[in-house]
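Quick review question:
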């Protein structure tokens, strides 16, 4: 399910705000770019048949629904005696045919996209296991409670005791207004986030357990700490390259083929590469040798400074200057760099399969690029090739 159109997730999460057994009509699935049969094949949905309530019905009797009489339509008729509406109504089949899922299936699909692994402890009802969140040297059990209602606090405290010492903290997702616990109880309750997409906003709970982490992770002397509260997105259009940080587009990368592919290559290295994404800073100038020479390392240092400066040039809502600076981490004494954002917080859009370089439009129609510009475009091509070589699945 994690490969489905991103428009599916706000629909499902909005339904979870009302019920733990959400239904999705054929029409709703098609509207968010997903074939209903694909949802069924994923194992996260089951077929729920037909369901329709006529606006003309006054008797409350379940109507008779017949499919196959007209293409794309179903016939609805009242079976009461006497019938509360005469004859047949013809309605779109997509509006009356349904799929059903559960909170457990939705969270099972969302877990990998939120950096979670299966929760291998017994979780009693009414809780639903969501997963282990292993971040910031913590092992946090994440569960769904839905409507805690009266006694929700006692249920959460009881579950924390039942899970034992292995669950260093308990993070509970719920609908409605969450209860608040004292910091030493190591329990945080979060409502579902309002922003669209598959992110559950779990770092809000981590900030409760470790309130000083964000400041520590954004200092240059801690290259080992991830900015797990930052989301990066990469896409491209015919007019511009698009880098987003927490959904905010960064201007400096729109027309720069080099800056965009430098960051794209680092992102590919972190998301699907080896050694947690650590690379020699010489890769920023497209030197991928195992032992780059001093000239490449010096050029890589300048490229790193330029890349960091461009990231920090504009304000990113919700992030401090130090937090933006720490998006690229540097390991002192080794000459290595990496993105300081965990893999599940990096997204690549399908548009990256076909990148159009922006240099020709920057230079101007009919004009030839300078030697430096041509060299930059060659580097951008090599950086893109390296990103594809890492396995992004982007055809040349």
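Suggested answer, residue by residue:
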């Amino acid at each position: 399910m994690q490969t489905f159109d991103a428009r599916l997730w706000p629909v499902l999460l909005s339904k979870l705000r009302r019920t733990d057994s959400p239904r999705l009509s054929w029409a709703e699935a098609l509207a968010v770019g997903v074939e209903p049969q694909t949802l069924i094949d994923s194992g996260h949905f089951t077929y729920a048949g037909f369901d329709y309530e006529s606006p003309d019905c006054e008797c409350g009797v379940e109507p008779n629904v017949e499919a196959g009489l007209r293409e794309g339509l179903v016939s609805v008729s009242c079976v009461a005696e006497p019938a509360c509406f005469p004859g047949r109504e013809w309605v779109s089949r997509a509006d009356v045919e349904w799929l059903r899922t559960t909170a457990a299936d939705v969270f099972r699909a969302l877990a990998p996209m939120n950096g979670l692994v299966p929760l291998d402890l017994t979780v009693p009802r009414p809780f639903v296991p969501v997963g282990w969140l292993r971040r910031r040297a913590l092992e946090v059990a994440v569960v769904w409670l839905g409507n805690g209602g009266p006694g929700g606090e006692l249920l959460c405290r009881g579950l924390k005791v039942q899970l034992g010492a292995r669950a260093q903290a308990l993070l509970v997702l719920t609908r409605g207004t969450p209860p608040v616990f004292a910091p030493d109880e190591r329990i945080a309750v979060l409502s579902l986030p309002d922003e669209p997409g598959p992110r559950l906003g779990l770092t809000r709970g981590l900030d409760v357990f470790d309130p000083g982490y964000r400041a520590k992770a954004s200092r240059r002397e801690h290259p080992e700490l991830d900015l797990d509260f930052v989301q990066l997105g990469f896409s491209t259009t015919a007019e511009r390259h698009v880098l987003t940080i927490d959904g905010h587009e960064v201007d400096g990368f729109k027309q720069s083929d080099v800056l965009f592919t430098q960051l794209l290559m680092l992102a590919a290295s972190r998301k699907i590469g080896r050694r947690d994404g650590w690379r020699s800073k010489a890769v920023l100038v497209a030197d991928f040798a195992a032992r780059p020479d001093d000239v490449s390392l010096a050029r890589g240092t300048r490229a790193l400074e330029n890349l960091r400066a461009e990231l920090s040039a504009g304000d990113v809502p919700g992030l401090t200057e130090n937090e933006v600076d720490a998006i690229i981490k540097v390991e002192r004494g080794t000459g290595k760099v990496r993105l300081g954002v965990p893999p599940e917080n990096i997204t690549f859009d399908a548009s990256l399969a076909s990148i159009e370089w922006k240099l020709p439009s920057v230079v101007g129609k009919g004009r030839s690029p300078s030697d430096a510009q041509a060299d930059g475009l060659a580097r951008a091509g090599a950086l893109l090739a390296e990103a594809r070589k890492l396995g992004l699945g982007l055809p040349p």
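Why it works: The radius of gyration is 26 Å. The chain has a mean pLDDT of 89.
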